[in-house]
């Protein structure tokens, strides 16, 4: 009997390994076309500096900090730096590594799911293995994760999810170990002392790991006879209360004011965001359970903001639905612990990015970790159907879902292979999105398809669409009439949006490069108005001010151009580029003393930044020497 059980166990393990291997092979196959895709958006701001020739001489410690998070996300940045240092093709290495991390997380998800199901369901090992493999395959192949794996900078979200799941697995493994020895104690402590710091330093929502551990203890109570019960209770108190106290201290020490100030750059308020996010959570749930092109998509700025509980009408029902889900979790935690854990994990996974922090309203990658919980909950529901034809139908349905997910992911990954196919894919998913329309129209114009580009922008209103029409006219005709440049349209916008800033930058580039004849003065006025608007990200205004300085200089308004640079330098004390450009221009004007002072100020700013600007500094020094300025 013992030999037979052992043989059965080995056979089951072999089948699990085979299932996971097949899942990995299929996942690599469907993602492979997108691995050669371009960098975009935050990739350019965060990772492009690592591709510059001077990077090999730069200060690595300064590159370990990203401006996209309050803690700098050094763990994720270190992984990017390692890829860049070891590969001749960093872009391919970054995306390939993202896919490898995705597969590692899938293996962790299998381990977490199987242990949860073993503890929370009265199911056989074979059934637990089958359900766990289904959860793993559905998650690995789910099309909602394409924009996390192939949007390079989202490795931050991936690594955070990896360490969170590793912490949950370590805790479950230690919890199920009978002897209260050093190994068990270490496993129980590891989520708090090891995995939470690593997760947080990858991306800040890793701080949710202690809440997931608390959730485990709520739905899977520790037996009274567990010799490590006291340690578990102490760890939970410390692990949950310490982050809560730190968060409260942050809010009391100016954090709340900073959060509220962040809404000055958004076109929604705190209350509007909270009401809208109630609807967004249901959007997320729908895109995970029944993904479709209309639900998926990189851009979701066509989502209507909730202005009240009745506008739109789904706002109130969405809030009531979330309350009902919360009540369901409380009532079902004893009878259906796995379903309760999964639903609560999905909801808790959105606590940071879908509540008070003034982020964009909706992104697919925010479901990378929460989707694990929702699929685990569905596995708990599927376990209730054990016998008869219904169980066969469930298995066939899951198999069909895997095939559909793989097909949809393959299509999306293929679209990510180039800018043209990628922006076309984004636009087809959300044709009323201003971001999607503006980017796709630029791609069409770069291919000479101006009529199609104008048609894409035709239904889009607002300043951003009009500015992109300027760009199309410039590209098509090389001339932009003064009557077309209505600077006042900028004032109709409440905040500076990214596609408005991008449009102004692109038009300015054409003007400065002599590829479009237009009024530098009028364009400069439009850029000046935009640069004074509140913005969600400081770099948008920063870039516009650089272009404003160049436009003023080219238009002969040289004192005004230098004034813009001086203002920019004052706002960004650790950026030497305004000072170095000021040195160049003052040198052209014959202001030796002013050029020297600006150059020295640039050197000081370069030292404060911790980054390598030696090439720029050497170029400016050479220019000053050629101008006979000491």
Tell me the structural class: mainly alpha
Number of strands: 0
Instruction: Enumerate how many helices there are, as a single number.
Output: 27
H and E order: HHHHHHHHHHHHHHHHHHHHHHHHHHH
Largest sheet: none
- Oligomeric form: single chain
| Percent of sequence in beta strands | under 5%
Mean pLDDT: 88
Helix content: 55-70%
In whole angstroms, the N-to-C terminal distance is 92 Å
Principal-axis shape equals globular
Low-confidence stretches: none
- Gyration radius from CA atoms, angstroms: 27 Å
Polypeptide structure, described:
With 630 residues, the protein is mainly α. The chain contains 27 helices and no strands. The chain has helices spanning 2-31, 42-47, 60-63, 74-86, 90-120, 125-141, 146-149, 155-175, 182-200, 209-219, 229-262, 270-289, 314-332, 337-348, 370-382, 388-415, 419-429, 434-446, 450-457, 463-477, 498-512, 520-531, 538-554, 558-571, 577-588, 592-609, 614-626. The chain is globular, with a radius of gyration of 27 Å. The mean pLDDT is 88.
Q: What is shown here, in short?
A:
By secondary structure, the protein is an all-alpha fold. It is 68% helix and 0% strand. Helix 25 runs antiparallel to helix 26.
